[in-house]
Amino acid sequence: MIELRHVTRRFGPTVAVDNINLTIETGEVCVLVGSSGCGKSTTLRMINRLLPHSEGEILVDGEDITTMNPEQLRLNMGYVIQGTGLFPHWTVARNIAMVPQLLKWPRDRIDARVHELMTLLDLDPATHANKYPQQLSGGQAQRVGVARALAADPNILLMDEPFGALDAITRESLQLEMLRIQKQVRKTTVFVTHDIDEALKLATRIAVMDQGRIIQHDTPENILRRPASEFVENLVGKQDRGLKLMSLRPVRQLMQAHPAPKRPEPGAEGLKEEDNLRLALSVMLWQGAEQVPVFNARGEETGVITRERLIQEGA
Amino acid sequence: MRLWLPPVLLAVLLYGLSAGMPALEPLFHWVQPDKQQVIYERESFLFLLQNHLLLVLISAAVGTLVAVAGGIFATRPSGRDFLPLVSQVASIGQTFPPVAVLALAVPVLGFGEAPILVALMLYGLLPILRNTLAGLEGISPAVKEAARGMGMSPLQVLVRAELPLAGRVILAGIRTSVTINIATAAIGSTIGARTLGDPVIAGLVNGNTAYVLQGAILIGLLALTTDSLFEALERTWDRRFSPQVAV
CB of B77 within 8 Å of any CB in chain A? Predict the structure, then answer.
């Protein structure tokens, strides 16, 4: 758990972060979102003491971070940044092994961990372990960046616009990847972005920041339904809210389930249970269908979702 | 292994010529037919070579140490304030002719090896300092940010990331410095240091082109040998620390 109490950061006369209070529960993904210069990166960098805070206190698991050795503190926090910051003179494997090496793990334990992480992040160890960062695509490099941050199994993960420099398709796939990994590892994550859609997709709770203050700290659904101010309303897109809300809910919640899973008809197209309602609507509009079958992970048809229900209860 | 062949061959040639210069007497007679003595004999060439090398080595070692230390200091948070000053000194110092440094050093240190050593150190320091600054400043801020953020101490960042990444540029600075100093050391002969410049000066004074040639050939060969040695060093460095360039 990370707690920020009355934290302020000044750069000379300018106040970058203005008396903020924020509690990030263990295992949740807290996304700090706001336009550039709103203090979100500054807040993140104060948590691992890359920047000292001017006032207030920051507690990690109940302990004041200023009483801890900064290097020890950071070794227990994964850190992912936009430009990856991979060491260009080290191979992928050595980059991932960076923190375990600093912690002086035995050689074979490091090797096993690197192999495990590369597999987790969908990087083939055989082809990529001995490459250098310059030989990777942007998406692959950022996967290595995430693997490096997870290497010593830290409790906390700090991510500073990690997918900001990637193209839309790669970003999307890495976001999905992150959701999948987060389900497995459950790290307390602080994620900084200026992209509200990314925030809505990834967050357990979102903290909207403006001019150094936290305007609203709530779940994605509440941010959309009950924006605290006009600023938040504009940020989420006033008129776009209906579709954004739909994209938060999985098809599973609104489908009419069959009594028992059925074998699908050959060649039948449909949705997966985890797909969101917005996608369901899109498929229906495209196919001109009144209802679409829903399949589970094993490919069995478990129900159908109808256009009527979607329109009535979707948002 | 092929990497080290050119410097080794050049070194053998240099040694052979220094030791066996008298054997080339007929050749130099042909160059300078009007002189009785065409081989410089006041000192042995091997002794001059050794002294010349020693001057360059000492000045390069001290210069590298001081310049790299200075460059590291000026790029640390505590030394940042000095960075503009240090990099200006490094650039302006290069425009100062070595002869002028010698002229200024002689009244203070007298004749002999001491003033030339001081001149070589000061003069050789500058390209190394400039390249150290360029190398360290040229590292992507994201790399340093990530290294710090992952929990490396400032010293670990310096040793594991900054120096290996800047090393190639620093090495190039040392190469420039040493090559310049091999030529500059010869000027030391004008103020009483024993270097390969001796036969050149003697030849100029006596109108003996053969002497001038002997000194000049050996100095040139020494510079070539050193330069190819650095070439091999840089390639080795690439293989070790920046393999993506070597591939």
Answer: no
- For residue A99, give how far its alpha carbon lies from the nearest alpha carbon of chain B (Å): 7
Chain B nearest-CA residue for A150: B150
- pTM equals 0.83
- State the 10-residue block means of pLDDT for chain B, 247 residues long: 87 90 84 82 89 94 94 90 86 79 82 86 89 93 94 94 93 93 89 90 90 92 94 87 56
Q: What is the pLDDT of residues A102-146, one digit of tens each?
A: 999 999 999 999 999 999 998 999 999 999 999 999 999 999 999
Token pair listed for A123: 């990087």
Q: Write the residue in A48, A76, A135 that is nearest to B244 by C-beta.
A: A135
Sheet with A205-210, strands from edge to edge, namely: A77-81, A156-160, A188-193, A29-33, A205-210, A213-218
Q: Which residues contact A287 (CB under 8 A, 6 or more apart)?
A: A269
Give B77's contacts (C-beta < 8 A, 6+ positions apart).
none
In DSSP terms, A306 is beta-bridged to A291
ipTM reported for the complex, 2 dp? 0.83
The Cβ of residue B37 has, within 10 Å, a number of other Cβ atoms equal to 13
